[in-house]
Amino acid sequence: MTMKLDSWLLEILACPNCGGELRADDAAAELVCTGSCGYAYPVRDDIPVLLVDEARAPAS
Q1: How far apart are CA 21 and CA 26, in angstroms?
Q2: DSSP letters along 4-41, please?
Q3: I want to staple 18 with a disulfide (CB 3.0 to 4.6 A). Which of 1, 11, 37, 52 is the partner?
């Protein structure tokens, strides 16, 4: 299922952990940080959950 996030929203959102840019991963329903931390934040009902405690850390 494709997430319904406006492109302007992705342009202004930033990773709350490191401030990096976020990219949408439709297959996983996540916003993934392209910055230094690489955290993946869930998107539930087309609403990004940008809480570090809810983020998935990248696989080492």
Answers
A1: 16
A2: ---HHHHHH-B-TTT--BEEEETTTTEEEE-SSS--EE
A3: 37
